Amino acid sequence: MLKTGTERVKRGMAEMQKGGVIMDVINAEQARIAEEAGAVAVMALERVPSDIRAAGGVARMADPTIVEEVLNAVSIPVMAKARIGHIVEARVLEAMGVDYIDESEVLTPADEVFHLLKSDYTVPFVCGARDLGEASRRIGEGASMLRTKGEPGTGNIVEAVRHMRMIQGQIRKVVAMSEDELMTEAKNLGAPFEVLLQIKKAGKLPVVNFAAGGIATPADAALMMQLGADGVFVGSGIFKSESPEKFARAIVEATTHYQDYKLIAELSKGLGTPMKGIDISTLAPGERMQERGW
Amino acid sequence: MLKIGVLALQGAVREHVRAIEASGAEAVAVKRIEELEDLDGLVMPGGESTAMRRLIDKYSFLEPLKEFAKNKPVFGTCAGLILMAKRIQGQDTAHLELIDMTVERNAFGRQVDSFEADLMIHGVGEDFTGVFIRAPFIVEVGPEVEILSKHNDRIVAAKQGHFLCAAFHPELTDDYRLHQFFVKMVQSSKEVVA
To answer: What is the ipTM of this complex?
Structure first.
């Protein structure tokens, strides 16, 4: 018997990405640069988050031409983003053979109440989360991988740090609780009880959790690894920097050797200017992508 | 106690560590060349082979790994199998070139084609759940290579001397028979050397 789209196959795919860097790319050339630099996967997009932010308007799934171009350019897995709750965008990406779908708050949500029922799909999904309640709801819907939301397109790590610390702290709390306290904790977090029970028993999330949303330098990537991330997504950080190739390689190495500070010092030398960042307090609440998703 | 390393440049390292420990050996994550020194065997995990190769080159791991493999057992799963192959279809060069075989990358298709299937593994047992994730398979093997398992006529596990490889991921299941098999290989290799 041959079974596709099983939980193990979908979650396992993300397990294979651990310790790696997933890079946003907008064409075949960038995808090849990313692969060459040692990315474990690429995210095919029409625009990187900082450009989405600048452009305003409604951000949708990328033009399938771009996704196809990237699929044909590299042998590493290709991810693509669908709008929150947009069943058809997700099905289209699945039909195109995308390896992983990001149900992403970077795009304008299509549904302000419901997320996708991700367990229905053969293709695995990654979703953003700011806390354990959000993370557990996404797992409950069938997400096979998580990432912090951070604040995409800002080049500012502060929100990703906040979300990673929040999730890790809440996991420790759940693990330390006695089982008879879990239902109330589930109620307080808005989390499915069964997911919390799994976390308590395993001592960790049942899926891989990457860092995303604001990683701009090798030191940022290493910081997130040290805070317990399984790997990192870099969006605008690479191709909005002065020398994308160097940046990409340096971020890959810093992610692998995140506790080797001498090495991180070496590979941070002469990288040129990273992307210009944004102070989160200057963003109006409506401009904060992390507020999207429920 | 036997000490087995897991190459920890990228990929599913934690799962192999757990499987090795459950099979009665000590497991160590290996990020630096020096860490190969006192190991009795090495596992090359699943992950992205292109990303691993880049990090292997960056830290000049290739020669030390080849040297290590001269007389110590190595077990590769998925990307690890690709790193061990002498020939890779569609590519002019291979990586560690340990096992006399030709492999094809992503041979079963993309992620939506990833699957689980029951396998019979010679010398290991039946009803083994093979978890295939964007998996490679072995197209052909040289005369020295022992075929351990096939899925729909495609070779998915093989052994050559003290090298073992699998196209699937035993580390993603709680079935440790293949890891136990490798630990035994490491044990007998150590006895021969002693």
So the answer is: 0.94
